[in-house]
Structures are given as structure tokens and as C-alpha cells.
Write a structure and sequence with these properties.
Pnp Oxidase, Chain A; ten-stranded antiparallel β-sheet
């Protein structure tokens, strides 16, 4: 496994995708008045797209305008000094095809909002990168082999 300048392990696309598929909660990063905003959503990864539901607002506007957005998921163990982060860059789009909407309805994608999300948004994965942080003692204790092969964090 390759290590970056900061000492973080660089995840492969396959490892990054596996972590993305299992997280369920992430952040859509959009530009609001020329400043970045990270907005939490619950989501599902289906094929090469991230899907979530939303009501009218910033996330829906990004989809309608087919804006390039970022999507980030992570997990960490503060006590164990370990964790990972996956970052996706892709174009958001509003899902309007009735057949695709029916598939997403069947997948059970819901919105956290009290009013519910009437709209499905898809983010295509144009680029995916990931990093993993391990405590210095992990290699000596065998944690790296177990956690790296399972895709999970060392907890």
C-alpha cells in the first residue's frame, strides 16, 4: 500500500468504493455564495452513482444545474488513532426517469428532513480517492493485515 506525504495510506479505488458502499451517511459539498458548504445526507451507492433524496434547496439546485460537487464519507476511532476518509468528485443530476425513480423507491432511500425528500439526486463518480490513518503500533500488532483485508477500520 502506498503512503502519502502526510503518512496516510492511499486507498485503491476498490478499497475506497467498498468503504463508500458501507457508510450510509455522507456529506455533499457544494458552493454557496462562492463558499464551500458540506451538507449531510443519508445515501446509497448503486452502480457508479451515489443517490439521496432531498427537498427543495441547495442540494436540489446543484442537481438541477448539473453542478460538479464533492461527496465525502469517513469513519474514525479517536481512542485508537485510526480512521479513513473517501472523497468523490462528480456531477449532480436530478433523477427524472420514472423507471429509475421506481428502482430508487424500491431501494428504500429516505430523507432525514421532517418534510421528506420528494426529489432524488444522483452523483456520478468521476473521481474517487481515499486515505486511511493507522496508529504507529498497528503494523506490529497485526491490526493492519486484518482491517485492510476486510475494508473495515481497526477498532
Amino acid at each position: 500500500m502506498r503512503v502519502d506525504r502526510a503518512g496516510l495510506w492511499v486507498l485503491t479505488e476498490t478499497e475506497s468504493r467498498a468503504l463508500l458502499a458501507g457508510a450510509g451517511i455522507g456529506r455533499v459539498v457544494v458552493s454557496m455564495k462562492a463558499l464551500p458548504a458540506a451538507l449531510p445526507v443519508n445515501y446509497q451507492l448503486i452502480g457508479r452513482e451515489i443517490y439521496f433524496r432531498t427537498a427543495a434547496g441547495t442540494k436540489l439546485a446543484a442537481a438541477v444545474n448539473q453542478t460538479v460537487v464533492a461527496f465525502e464519507v469517513d469513519d474514525f476511532n479517536a481512542g485508537g488513532s485510526s480512521g479513513w476518509s473517501v472523497l468523490v468528485v462528480g456531477t449532480a443530476r436530478l433523477v427524472t426517469d420514472p423507471a429509475e425513480r421506481a428502482l430508487l423507491d424500491a431501494a428504500g432511500i429516505n430523507s432525514w428532513g421532517a418534510t421528506g425528500g420528494a426529489h432524488y439526486v444522483a452523483i456520478g463518480i468521476d473521481r474517487i480517492t481515499g486515505r486511511r490513518l493507522w496508529p504507529p503500533h498497528a503494523a506490529a500488532g497485526g491490526l493492519l493485515d486484518t482491517a485492510a483485508s476486510s475494508g473495515g477500520s481497526a477498532r
